[in-house]
Amino acid sequence: MDTVTLDSLDLRLLHALQLDGRAAFSRIAEVLNVHDRTVARRYERLRAAGAARVAAVTDRRRTGHAEWLIRLRVLPGGAAAIAQALARRPDTAWVTVASSGTEIVCVFRTADQGPVPLEALARHPQILTVDAHWLLRHLMDSRWLARTSALTAEEISALRSPGPGDAAPIRLTDLDRRLLPALATDGRAAYPALAKQTGWSESAIRRRLEELRRCGLLRFDVETDPALFGFSVQCMLWLTIAPSQLATIARILAADPEAAFVGATTGTHNLLAIAICRDADALYTYVTDRVGSLNGVERVETTPVTSYIKRAAPTL
Q1: DSSP per-residue codes, 120-186
Q2: Global pTM value
């Protein structure tokens, strides 16, 4: 990523895109009270620098996919190549190098609750251990607060996309299987480009995209680096919680400004939280004074994030 400094307009634009990743620049410009060409140029600058990217994300509950957290302990020096190979796989998301290059954590998505293809990983000479945890449920509906706090309540109301209506399962079509990967790569791809990539008409794509969003199968996320917002430390918190307190603690943590993700998992650690803090002192305070004080927290293991190789969008 090229060096980028965000100003107030950049922050407002990123917040607007998080509310509706496919909102027309003219609509965003009207709400932000700037020229639409200014908004378009700002986004293109951020995208070209690798500072922001809109990606389509599917809801696994609607597609029938399972998500597995795979935790690899690796020999020093081997993490980068392994992480890059994992990032190129179409069935992975959120590939991160952790603990200064001695760990890799990633998410595998498998169809019909199927097993994760772990045999090749187990045989890799630079991988020491492989742990798999089923990600049972996402327990945080909101986004990290630092990147969604630039707009007023009125601006948020004007830009927020309609929430999902029909909660019934939906069957993926041939169009979906062509359209979803294209939108995962570029969530703001124009309809003519999507028509060229999928071989379907623009009108069919427009209708189907509206259906997928309306039923809640598809949403759009903005991939950005927290360092751009002044937060230099990211850490995975592997929590062991008393089962009777799991839901309560998850709700408490999900409301914290440090929280970027909270999810229930199988295994010794039954809750995973990702905390984003300004520095190491802030992380220490959060873990000891906040997380450690909650009734029901039995154990906390911290894994600092070194770098992200893949978030939701495919690698290019």
Answers
A1: HHHH-TTEEEEEEEEEEEE---S--GGGS-SS-HHHHHHHPPPPP---S-----HHHHHHHHHHHH-
A2: 0.88
Q: Distance between CA atoms of 223 and 310, rounded to whole angstroms?
A: 10
Are the C-beta atoms of residues 56 and 62 closer than 8 Å to each other?
no
3-state secondary structure of 211: helix
Residue 7 pLDDT class (50, 70, 90 cuts)? very high
Packing angle of the helix pair 8-19, 25-32 (nearest 10 deg):
130
* pLDDT per residue as tens digits for the range 160-213: 877 665 556 678 899 999 999 999 999 999 999 999 999 999 999 999 999 999
3-state secondary structure of 68: strand
d(CA 190, CA 186): 9
**Angle value at C-alpha 259, between 96 and 109, nearest 5 degrees:** 40
What is the 8-class DSSP label of residue 111?
Answer: E
- Give strand ranges (E) for the chain: 52-58, 65-74, 92-98, 103-111, 127-138, 218-224, 233-241, 259-265, 271-277, 297-310
Tens-place pLDDT, residues 123-134: 899 999 999 999
Distance CA 179, CA 58 (A): 12
Which two tokens mark 279? 């520095």
pLDDT at 163: 67
| Total count of residues recorded for the chain | 316
pLDDT, tens digit, for every residue of 229-286?
999 999 999 999 999 999 999 999 999 999 999 999 999 999 999 999 999 999 999 9
Q: What is the mean pLDDT of the chain?
A: 91
Q: In terms of Cα–Cα distance, which of 11, 104, 106, 107 is closest to 51? A: 11
CA distance linking residue 134 with residue 131, whole number of Å: 10
